[in-house]
Design brief:
Length: 390
Amino acid sequence: MAQTIDQAKIGDFERVAVIGFGLIGASFAAALRAANPSAQVMAVDTDLATRVEAVNRGWATATAAPDTAEFRAFIEDGCDLVVLATPVSVVEGYLKDLAEWDYRGIITDTASTKCRIIEMAAHTLPYPQNFVPGHPMAGSEKNGIVGARADLFKGAYWILCPDADTPAEHFTRLHELITGIGARVISLPREQHDAAVAVVSHVPHFTASSLVQLAVRHAKGQDSLMRLAAGGFKDSTRIAAGSPELWCGIAFDNKDALLGGLREMQGIIGQFADALEAGDRATLTSLLAEAADARRALPAAWLPCTERLLEVRIPMEDRPGVVAEVTTITSKVGCNIQSIEIDHVTEDSAVLSLVLTDEGDIGKLSAHLINAGFSVSFSPLAPKEHTHVG
């Protein structure tokens, strides 16, 4: 029976262990259970109240504390995906457990930084190729399961970092799972991840915290100032309400990239201050105009037109790393992959089929793929043609 995009199975994962049932882990489980009610989800968390709430909300079908027989039994009894949604500082212990239990399924994570966790996986796991680093670019000023919700990832970017050793099927299954809960997958090289998120996520958080610090310092005895701050200022500094402990950990995990970004930010603010001090209206106007133009050029909320889907077919040698290479090129030119499939032709050859939404630069995509040695064909695809066979 043919299934539509919305009805299709999401990654074909039926037994999933979510380790860490805070905001991200609980929201992921909620989204997964909403999309696939038959999925068995184990919530692994140190907090008993969180585990009870996970079952009460229907987001987990079973729970366990770490270092328990129940947790190990779930892993050894056909678990096909482990999601590490804990701080990086405690990840290594879980990786050691999975290694000891000879876990051979897919492992991914939700950490905001990648360098340390990738090193841990490489040195700890007997099958490190089964670890596919991930990072959902979503959050809330509320922490823990109380802030979790099933729609947290709707329209959000979710970074995956496959490499040459990542089995192609692992990427395609995770891609289907993540897009199935409403997020959009971006493929990034592992070595570029931490520097990229420092600029678009970590530096903005510390900038927002700095703005709040500035307001607080001037608010003493001036209640009117904080009333004024309840408008646009409050919206622009919302992220500063995040967990201080979590963000301190992120800062030191990504120390070099964050420090470089903050120093660069100091220099940019200094340019504004210098122009103002010198009475240089032309320079100040130019700086403001450059920022305004760049801000207006940012894409609006994701509203892909389902009447303009495009299929890209890429005959390829079935070799390690080819899927990571193609998906990274696709992300680089701003194209969004709606779905991805691999049709194996022979033992050594396959056709990679991408269905793209109406985003990005298709011309650049074609040129980049051809320059990388691929041959490509493009064809419009009606929504009714985009089905999965169930």
